Amino acid sequence: MNSRDPYLKLRRPPMPPEEELCCCEGKNPIMLVGNREYNPIGCLKCSGEVEPGALGFDEKLAEKVAFWGRLYRSIDYLWLESREYESWAARELSNPNSPPNKRGFQLQQELNRYRTCYYWWFQDIGEEQFKPLEKCPVCSEQLVLFRENLLCETCQIVMQGSQ
């Protein structure tokens, strides 16, 4: 496909590059990540995309995960627009009781039946004064370092640890 194709953004995407896929051995925990383009399920260990079929859930759950991914991405796109919707979208994405996060937490619980699942928590890491959270935004427990990320084991939330 030519990069000068004026319709490129309207075409179906190719499969993700191999380096973006999880190739870890075993059954590592997964994470539900809302700002991914198509498949919001990633590996907690390597961050690579996890093939949904490897988890073994049914079509009904696949539909729910796909719908939630589109909903979350829509709000994330509004935040990235950095204009009149940015503040509203940031509030929605960082509020544990907002519709996209409530649905995400419900899906996380459903995915936990197939493999331990963490929920990726939104933070505006582009801010000059970005400082990683120290406490969980849901239960206020102390976060623990896991690789470059921070985890709340109680709520099964994962987030960016540093820029």
Any overview of this molecule?
The chain is α/β, with parallel strands linked by helices. The chain has helices at residues 59-81, 86-94, 99-111, and strands at 30-32, 41-43, 117-120, 144-146, 149-152, 157-160. A six-stranded mixed beta sheet has the order 2-1-3-6-5-4. Strand 1 (30-32) and strand 2 form a beta hairpin.
Largest sheet: 6 strands, mixed
Low-confidence stretches are none
Number of strands: 6
| Count of helix runs | 3
Helix content: 25-40%
User: What radius of gyration results from the CA coordinates?
Assistant: 16 Å
Quote the average pLDDT.
90
Strands in their spatial order, largest beta sheet: 2-1-3-6-5-4
Order of secondary-structure elements: EEHHHEEEE
| Share of β-strand residues | 5-15%
Structural class: alpha/beta
Question: What is the terminal-to-terminal distance?
Answer: 33 Å
Question: Which word captures the global form?
Answer: globular
